[in-house]
C-alpha cells in the first residue's frame, strides 16, 4: 500500500512492528537484508549515500554513526521526522518514488543509492524507469544502486511463496522477480546481480554496463 497517510500513521510504531514480524512474510530475514544491502554497496570512506524510502532510518543509522553523509528520501513526513531524530545531521527530502528523482539531489554528487522495502510499490515498468533514473541521471558515473526487498529469483519462486503465505499475501504489491527484471535491464545498459535471502527476500545490485 503506497499511501502517505498510512505511512505517516505507521511511523509511530514502525520499528516495534518490524521487530514483531522478522520471522515471517513480508519481513522474514529483515535485518539480514539490511546488512546485505550495506555489504553489497561497496562503501568507501568518501561515499555520499542516498537512502530512498528511508523510513525511520534503520538502514542508514549505522552508516551515519560511522560518519557517512546521508541523504534521506521518503514520501512520509512523519517517517522523515523519525529518521531525523535518530540522525540529526542528515539531509532529508520528501519524495515520491513514482516520480523522477529530484534534480536538486545532483548537487550533492551522490555516489551510492540504497533502498529497502520500497520498490515493491512500483510496477515493472516503473521499476525500470526508477533504476535508470538513479543510475544515469543522479549518481556519479561509477555509482551503484542496491535494492533490498521482498523479492524472488524466478516467477516460480514467487508463486510458491504466495501459495505458502495464503490469505496473508498482499496482492497490492508488485514484488521484484530478478530474472525478469535483470533481462530487461540489460536492454537499458544496466547490469544486475541478485542474491536470494530466505524464502521471500533478496538483494539486487545495479550498475551501468561500461
Can you summarize this structure?
It is built from eight helices and eight strands; from the N terminus they run αααβαβαββαβαβαββ. By secondary structure, it is α/β, with parallel strands linked by helices.
The 3D shape can be described as globular
Measured distance between first and last alpha carbons: 36 Å
Please name the CATH architecture.
3-Layer(aba) Sandwich
Radius of gyration: 16 Å
Estimate the mean pLDDT confidence: 92
CATH T-level fold name: Rossmann fold
Report on the biggest sheet: 8 strands, mixed
What is the H/E string?
HHHEHEHEEHEHEHEE
Unreliable spans: none
Q: Class by helix and strand content?
A: alpha/beta
Q: What is the strand tally? A: 8
Residues in helices, as a percent range = 25-40%
Classified by CATH, the class is Alpha Beta
Strand content: 15-25%
- Number of domains in the coordinates? 1
CATH superfamily, by name, is: Vaccinia Virus protein VP39
Oligomeric assembly: single chain
Number of helices: 8
What does this molecule look like?
The chain has about 210 residues and is α/β, with parallel strands linked by helices. The chain has one domain: Rossmann fold (3-Layer(aba) Sandwich). Helix content is about 35%, strand content about 20%. It is built from eight helices and eight strands. Strands 1, 2, 3, 4, 5, 6, 7 and 8 form an eight-stranded mixed sheet that branches. Helix 5 links the parallel strand 2 (about 70-75) and strand 3 (about 90-95). The longest helix has 15 residues, at about 125-140. The mean pLDDT is about 90.
Amino acid at each position: 500500500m503506497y499511501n502517505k497517510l498510512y505511512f505517516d500513521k505507521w511511523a509511530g510504531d514502525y520499528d516495534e512492528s518490524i521487530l514483531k514480524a522478522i520471522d515471517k512474510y513480508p519481513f522474514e530475514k529483515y535485518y539480514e537484508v539490511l546488512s546485505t544491502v550495506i555489504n553489497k554497496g561497496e562503501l568507501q570512506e568518501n561515499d555520499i549515500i542516498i537512502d530512498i524510502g528511508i523510513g525511520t532510518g534503520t538502514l542508514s543509522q549505522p552508516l551515519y554513526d560511522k560518519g557517512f553523509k546521508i541523504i534521506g528520501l521518503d514520501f512520509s513526513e512523519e517517517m522523515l521526522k523519525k529518521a531525523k531524530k535518530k540522525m540529526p545531521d542528515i539531509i532529508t527530502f520528501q519524495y515520491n518514488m513514482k516520480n523522477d528523482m529530484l534534480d536538486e539531489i545532483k548537487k550533492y554528487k551522490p555516489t551510492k543509492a540504497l533502498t529497502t522495502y520500497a520498490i515493491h510499490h512500483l510496477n515493472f515498468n516503473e521499476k525500470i524507469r526508477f533504476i535508470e533514473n538513479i543510475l544515469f541521471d543522479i549518481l556519479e558515473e561509477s555509482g551503484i544502486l542496491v535494492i533490498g526487498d521482498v523479492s524472488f529469483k524466478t516467477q516460480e519462486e514467487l508463486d510458491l511463496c504466495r501459495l505458502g503465505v495464503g490469505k496473508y499475501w498482499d496482492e497490492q504489491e508488485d514484488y521484484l522477480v530478478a530474472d525478469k527484471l535483470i533481462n530487461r535491464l540489460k536492454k537499458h545498459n544496466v547490469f544486475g546481480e541478485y542474491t536470494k535471502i530466505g524464502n521471500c527476500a533478496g538483494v539486487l545490485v545495479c550498475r551501468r554496463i561500461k
